């Protein structure tokens, strides 16, 4: 299990090895992972999850899950950008707008175009505010959107964006749109604790007209509860576990020649093994009764990635604290899961864990 990658597909393996080589420089230079995304396309990963009719391929035998785990171990920036692209595609694939699917999915499957998603304002961002962050007014031909989408990864590199808005009656819509329409202003990508290379920023919409032909879903209430892949989905847990796995793998390498690390390293390996098994079960079954709900899986993945990355930093000592060391990057990347697509129950579980003194105090 503790080989560098889980896949036995030679093309995927080649792609992940190539991607891993550039992960450090991408992070240090805050550089958009263009070549890494090209590697994924060449390996056939861009086509995964898109039906064959539109030039894609249906994943088999946990293929998508293995891709997320391996790609994250290689480079979190790349797998995170892939996940935001796939979130946009998943919404389009699930919709009933056949002409939209025919016009956008083939180019997305071949990697010719890139899509992303800006939907957090419908589920997690700004939920305490009185007014929705993006409002829409319906006309005969479409919708006019005004407001601010707070988070969009890779917007400045995207040909297509899936976003949403709230209508006057409180119902919500999801739309696919080009990013160069009149009235759109894309914010400069922001500097962050990690993942600055993901070119994440906001988007201002000033009375932007989107035709009805671009409707992906709605109008309906609580639109994020339909179409799958919402906040804290199992994909987000796989990505968090991919970073945890990378940390534990690196710790195990240190532990090979240091007896003082072995007991704790074995404990973390055992926890990771259980988590991977449960994530696999949770993907294939309805697991409410076994406590393998998406929220529980995400709380466990978050807890493990935070502890494993700090265990690795502790083992790597001062050298691991230096900018550019794998431990330093992994600790910064682990923090991302506290804020990204993190349901309230998972955030609450983290707060409880932080507020408790360790058992030996
Ligand atoms: C690197 C990165 C990339 C991301 N990429 C995407 C993407 O591509 N697409 C996408 O849709 N989303 C994306 N997100 C958004 C992410 O999934 C979460 O929605 C986001 O991190 C939530 O944080 P927020 O600051 O927007 O939350 P908010 O809830 O809006 O919190 C903002 C501030 O409001 C205050 N506040 C919060 N709750 C309350 C309350 N109950 N009462 C009073 N004050 C409160 C706090 O001071 C807080 O700092 C990304 C996030 C990050 C960090």
Small-molecule binders: flavin-adenine dinucleotide
CATH architecture name of the largest domain: Up-down Bundle
* Averaged pLDDT: 95
CATH topology of the largest domain: Butyryl-CoA Dehydrogenase, subunit A, domain 3
Class computed from helices, strands and strand pairing: alpha+beta
Major sheet attributes: 8 strands, mixed
Series of H and E elements: HHHHHEEEEEEEEHHHHH
CATH class of the largest domain: Mainly Alpha
Number of strands: 8
Instruction: Tell me the distance between the termini.
Output: 34 Å
Q: Which homologous superfamily in CATH is the superfamily of the largest domain?
A: Butyryl-CoA Dehydrogenase, subunit A, domain 3
What does the radius of gyration come to?
21 Å
Oligomer: single chain
Helix content: 40-55%
Residues in β-strands, percent: 15-25%
Summarize the structure.
By secondary structure, the protein is α+β, with helices and mostly antiparallel strands.
Description of the structure:
The chain is built from ten helices and eight strands. The chain is of the alpha+beta class. The chain folds into three domains: 10-109, Acyl-CoA dehydrogenase/oxidase, N-terminal domain (Butyryl-Coa Dehydrogenase, subunit A, domain 1), CATH 1.10.540; 115-224, Butyryl-CoA Dehydrogenase, subunit A, domain 2, CATH 2.40.110.10; 234-355, Butyryl-CoA Dehydrogenase, subunit A, domain 3 (Up-down Bundle), CATH 1.20.140.10. The longest helix has 27 residues, at 294-320. The radius of gyration is 21 Å and the shape is globular. The mean pLDDT is 95. It binds flavin-adenine dinucleotide.
């Amino acid at each position: 299990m503790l080989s560098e990658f889980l896949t036995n597909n030679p093309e995927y393996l080649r792609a992940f090895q190539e991607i891993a080589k550039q992960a450090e420089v991408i992070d240090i230079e805050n550089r958009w992972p263009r070549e890494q995304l090209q590697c994924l396309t060449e390996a056939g990963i861009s086509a995964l999850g898109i039906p064959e009719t539109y030039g894609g391929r249906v994943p088999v035998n946990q293929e998508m899950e293995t891709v997320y785990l391996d790609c994250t171990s290689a480079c979190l920036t790349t797998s995170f950008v892939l996940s935001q692209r796939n979130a946009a595609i998943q919404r389009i694939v699930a919709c009933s707008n056949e002409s939209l699917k025919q016009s956008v999915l083939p180019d997305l499957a071949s990697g010719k175009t890139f899509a992303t998603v800006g939907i957090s304002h419908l589920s997690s961002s700004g939920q305490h505010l009185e007014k929705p962050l993006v409002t829409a007014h319906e006309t005969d031909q479409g919708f006019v959107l005004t407001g601010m989408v707070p988070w969009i990864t890779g917007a400045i590199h995207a040909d297509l964006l899936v976003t949403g808005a709230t209508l006057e009656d409180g119902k919500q819509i999801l739309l696919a749109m080009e990013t160069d329409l009149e009235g759109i202003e894309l914010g400069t990508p922001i500097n962050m604790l990690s993942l600055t290379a993901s070119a994440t920023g906001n988007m201002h919409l000033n009375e932007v007209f989107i035709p009805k032909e671009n409707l992906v879903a709605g109008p309906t209430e609580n639109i994020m509860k339909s179409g799958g892949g919402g906040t804290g989905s199992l994909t987000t847990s796989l990505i968090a576990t991919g970073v945890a796995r990378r940390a534990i793998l690196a710790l195990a390498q240190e532990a090979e020649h240091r007896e003082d690390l072995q007991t704790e390293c074995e404990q973390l390996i055992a926890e990771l093994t259980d988590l991977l098994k449960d994530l696999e079960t949770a993907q294939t079954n309805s697991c409410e009764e076994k406590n393998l709900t998406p929220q529980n899986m995400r709380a466990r993945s978050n807890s493990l990635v935070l502890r494993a990355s700090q265990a690795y930093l502790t083992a790597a000592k001062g050298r691991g604290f230096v900018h550019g060391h794998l431990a330093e990057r992994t600790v910064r990347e682990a923090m991302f899961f506290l804020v990204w697509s993190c349901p309230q129950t998972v955030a609450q579980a983290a707060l409880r864990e932080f507020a408790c003194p360790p058992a030996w105090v």
